[in-house]
Amino acid sequence: MKTLRWILVCCIALTCAAACQRSKDDKEKTGEEKVKVTVASKLFTESVILGSVLERLAETVGAEAEHKAQLGATQILWQAVLRGDLDAYIDYTGTLMRETFAQENFTTIEQVSEKMAELGLKMSKPIGFNNTYAFGTLSTTAEERGLTKISDLQGHPDLKFGFSNEFMHRSDGWTPLKATYQLPQTDVKGLEHELAYRALETSQIDLTDLYTTDAKIQRYDLTVLEDDLNFFPKYYAVVIYRADLEERAPEVVEAFLKLENALTESQMTALNAKSELESMNEKVIAAEFVQERFPDLTSGKTETP
After folding, report:
1. Each residue of 152-177: pLDDT tens digit?
2. What is residue 48's DSSP assignment?
3. What is the pLDDT of residues 96-135, one digit of tens each?
4. 154 within 8 A of 182, measured Cβ to Cβ
5. What are phi and psi of 198, to 5 degrees?
6. Which of 39, 101, 111, 213 is most buried (most C-beta within 10 Å)?
């Protein structure tokens, strides 16, 4: 009798399992599978972390997310989202105004937003912090040369400059800045951003471009020079996403927009430090941030990659 009952229990269990599998298969056949969302990041740490945050946010609302980490420089991501190869990425208001739409001579971010709408794109409000460009040098060099602001560089034509390759060619980069400040330096080279710190440390260069949320400013004891002519605009981080994503995955867009005003400059610097100074994986950093900052999205989803 007990054997018969056991057989019946097993049969019921197998029937339920088969029914669940059929239900899953039916959903896939009827197009009810997970929405697929593709995000991307640029070539520097902060962008990779924020790209991972977008990926994690999409996953928390049930989407199947792919993060194309370190896909390339600004124009590569911009063209990809225009084509529809990407659904979203994080960019900066200063980059949009001075680089992406440089020919438009926009003076407000509202003008940028209106132009993007014509292209089938949308932009969030700032996610909370301004990560502008800056010039940095070793504090010992700054003290020896009396450097506190960019204009001070006019009196030191022998200084060797090394800038990230993208900064060398941007419309808000080296060439227009040199003209604005009338800088005389001629020993100027392009290099990978991550190599600039070691080059400073070994005296191969005397000055480089920085991001103001860069955790390595403190690690390498760098002095950030004041932009006394206000050359650099505000670089507020924003989410760029395709307008059609609101129809395809409204829950994902809603999750992305939770980032508005969610991160201060010091908090972003701390996240960068976890990667650059503590060698923590960017996916783990992003998962921990989303879990701590948005518990309403992650309740019951405490796992990290």
Report:
1. 999 999 999 999 998 998 888 999 99
2. H
3. 998 999 999 898 999 999 999 999 999 999 999 999 999 9
4. yes
5. -65, -35
6. 39
Q: Which residue has the tokens 């227009």?
A: 176
Q: Which phi and psi angles does 207 have, rounded to 5°?
A: -155, 150
**Is residue 24 classed as helix, strand or coil in its secondary structure?**
helix
Three-state DSSP class for residue 37: strand
Tokens of 75: 């124009």
CB atoms near residue 136 (< 10 Å)? 24
**What's this model's pTM, rounded to 2 decimal places?**
0.79
User: Side chain identity at 194, as an amino acid letter?
Assistant: E
Q: Please answer whether residues 235 and 227 qualify as being in contact, where contact means their C-beta atoms are separated by less than 8 angstroms.
A: no
54/294 Cα distance (integer angstroms): 13
In this prediction, residues 211-239 reach a mean pLDDT of: 93
Q: Residue 126: what pLDDT?
A: 97
Instruction: Count Cα atoms within 13 angstroms, Cβ side, for 264.
Output: 3
If we measure between CA atoms, which residue out of 124, 117, 127, 197 comes closest to residue 162?
Answer: 197
Tokens of 20: 């669940």
Whether residue 37 contacts residue 64, with contact meaning beta carbons closer than 8 Å, is answered with: yes
Q: Is 136 helix (H, G, I), strand (E, B) or coil?
A: strand
Residue located via tokens 């783990």? 284
Q: What is the DSSP letter of 220?
A: T
CA gap 37, 255 in Å, rounded = 12
83 backbone dihedrals φ, ψ, rounded to 5°: -75, -20
**Residue 221, C-beta contacts closer than 8 angstroms, at least 6 positions apart:** 138, 139, 140
Rounded CA-CA distance 177/142 in Å is: 20
Tokens read off for 220: 């390498």
Give how far Cα 176 sits from Cα of 44, 99, 157, 163, 281, Å.
Answer: 23, 12, 17, 14, 36
Q: Are 159 and 185 in contact (CB under 8 A)?
A: yes
- Rounded to the nearest 10 degrees, the angle between the axes of helix 282-293 and helix 45-60 is 50
